[in-house]
Structure formats: C-alpha cells, structure tokens
C-alpha cells in the first residue's frame, strides 16, 4: 500500500489529526532508518521490504503516540492493519490484482483528505 493511500485512510478515519501529524506518523513508520524502538516479539506484519523495521504493533503504537497522542496511536494501528491487509490480498489474488484494487480504492476516495 502506498503512502498516499495510508495518508487518505488516516485523514478519513481520524479527522482530528492534522495533515502534518498524519504524514509524520505514516512517514516515521515507513522510514527505513533504524529505530531504538523495535519489538519483533509483538510483530504480526509480514516481514517483507520496508516492513522489516518498526512495523510491529508496539513500535508503531509508540510512534503514533509520539506524533498524535492516543489518536495518533490508533492511526498507527490502522497503518499496520492496512499493511497486513495488503499482504493478505497479495497472497490471495496476486500482486497485480492487489495493485488494481488499491488503484480503484484510491480513485474512489475523496481528494479532500
């Protein structure tokens, strides 16, 4: 799932977060930089590509809390949930069909977010 779709979901589900906070949360989770916050024992996200770091639920939650408080933590959980969903769709239907689904989803979502 690309960053723009993560951002749109975050803004749609959590309108009380500012646009800057939504971008900070998603960017910090997806950043390839090493982090002192990594708890692989709490990880249920498929370990692939950029998801090898900071995609466990505890790390994501702490990143969300840092940038947006409790709502930010919920937004970080949404980020992780969307990544797991993306992996499940890819495993079930293939990468090409996943990309088509997400392109249609992105097209259908309002651009005001």
Please describe what this structure looks like.
The chain has one domain (3-31, 46-108). With 113 residues, the protein is mostly helical. The chain has helices spanning 3-13, 19-30, 57-93, 95-108. The protein is built from four helices and no strands. The chain is globular and about 35 Å long. It starts with a helix and ends in a 5-residue tail after the last helix.
- Summing up helix and strand content along with how strands pair, one would put the structural category as mainly alpha
Beta-strand percentage? under 5%
Number of strands: 0
Number of helices: 4
Distance separating the two termini: 17 Å
Q: Helicity, in percent? A: 55-70%
Weakly predicted, low-confidence segments: none
Query: What string gives the helices and strands in order?
Result: HHHH
Please tell me how large the radius of gyration is: 14 Å
Q: Which descriptor suits the 3D outline?
A: globular
Outline:
The protein has helices spanning 3-13, 19-30, 57-93, 95-108. The longest helix is centred in the middle third of the chain and has 37 residues, at 57-93. It has one domain (3-31, 46-108).
Helices and strands in order:
Layout: H1 3-13, H2 19-30, H3 57-93, H4 95-108
Helix pairs in contact: 1-2, 1-3, 2-3, 3-4
List keywords for this structure.
4 helices, mainly alpha, 0% strand, single chain, 113 residues
């Amino acid at each position: 799932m690309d960053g723009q779709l993560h951002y749109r979901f975050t803004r749609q589900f959590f309108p009380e977060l500012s646009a800057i906070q939504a971008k900070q949360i998603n960017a910090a989770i997806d950043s390839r930089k090493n982090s002192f916050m990594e708890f692989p024992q709490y990880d249920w996200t498929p370990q692939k590509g950029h998801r090898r770091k900071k995609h466990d639920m505890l790390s994501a939650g702490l990143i969300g809390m840092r940038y947006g408080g409790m709502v930010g933590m919920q937004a970080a959980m949404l980020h992780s949930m969307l990544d797991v969903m993306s992996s499940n769709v890819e495993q079930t239907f293939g990468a090409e069909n996943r990309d088509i689904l997400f392109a249609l989803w992105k097209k259908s979502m309002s651009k005001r977010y």
